[in-house]
Amino acid sequence: MKQLIGKNNKVNYGCIDESIEWNYKDFVLRDFFNKEIKGLKKKLAYHQFNYIGITAGDYIVGFAIVDLGAIKNVFGFLYKMGEGIILESDDKCLGSSKKMDFPRNPDSYTATFQGGKTSLLIDKDHKKGILTIDCSFKNRLKVKGSFLYSMETHQPLRVLNPSDPNRFTFTEKCSPLSADTFEMSLDGENLPFESKAVTAIYDWTGGYLRRETNWYWTAFGALLPDGTSIGTNLAAFVNETYFSENAFWINNKRTRVSRVIYDIDPLDPYKSWHVYDEAGTLDLTFNPEGERNDKINAGPLVKTIFRQFIGTFEGYFQPEGGRKVNFSDVKGFCEIHRAIW
After folding, report:
1. pLDDT, tens only, 77-87
2. Do the strands 20-21 and 2-3 form a parallel or antiparallel pair, or are they unpaired?
3. Cα 6 from Cα 207, distance rounded (Å)
4. What ranges do the domains of the chain cover?
5. What does the pLDDT look like over 254-274, one tens digit per residue?
6. For residue 159, what pLDDT band results from cuts at 50, 70 and 90?
7. Strand duo 47-56 + 302-317: pairing
8. What would the DSSP string read from start to end of 33-100?
9. What count of other Cβ atoms lies within 10 Å of the Cβ of residue 221?
10. CB neighbour list of residue 35: distance below 8 Å, 6 or more residues apart
11. Which residue, 90, 106, 252, 284, could crosslink 275 as a Cys pair with Cβ 3.0–4.6 Å?
């Protein structure tokens, strides 16, 4: 087991393919002038969130549990290709609220939220090799299932990087996860999908992120007609100094990618996106169809703007020494995110 924080406040940066002791409280957080930050200010500086996106036929479900210290948030949405967002749910509460329980442990945890007509449960344990979800949004959209998931079988990308010289960010990404069991209903009616083709993307982040954080983000997972499973999780602007947070997976085998380039028009993001890397290991064209967007303005403490687009991808993955995998009409996500938190 690898410790997050070692002796003398040393953060054990790297790509971590083993369990981790999340001793984040041992970290000495310092400001611009290296003065120690303590107490409530340190507590509010720690952020953690978990996003899961599920593709089930023509339906896309995305949901997240978010703890930004001063404010907590749970959101979920249901999108149908060709129709747009059918349902959207968003619950926010103060950081002191007891509605949310989000343990600090990326390897094994049960995250819960209960507030009003929304409930959420995400249970993950790498040792057991299973990810379980049970969510109800507005008491209308209900999503329940289990996905096979472990470090040995799925080779997730687990990266610990400096956010700046005095902060760190750990992220775990993997795609696709195949459903072992899955059910989804809206207003009591089961939604139609092919159960064998249900896939999920997984994204967990925790740490002392930059006070001002921006990113472009891309993720999808799919089963191709020939039975090949593919997935990716890519980002730009977040942490590109030490260890890359980019990867794609073919049949659960991970290929890491150095850095990716986003050729987009930020003033007209409904134009096609071109996402690629210099080495030619991946080349994607994303065609946005719709989006979920949100804005938080909680005074000087927290401000976020994000636009998460749903659409289709075409392109290829070229792992070193492996065969080139071409694909088209693969459903997934791209996102523009800006935050002060």
Report:
1. 999 999 999 99
2. parallel
3. 15
4. 2-340
5. 999 999 999 999 889 999 999
6. very high
7. unpaired
8. TSPBP-HHHHHHH-EEEEEEEEEETTEEEEEEEEE-SSEEEEEEEEEETTTEEEEEEEEEEETT-SSE
9. 26
10. none
11. 284
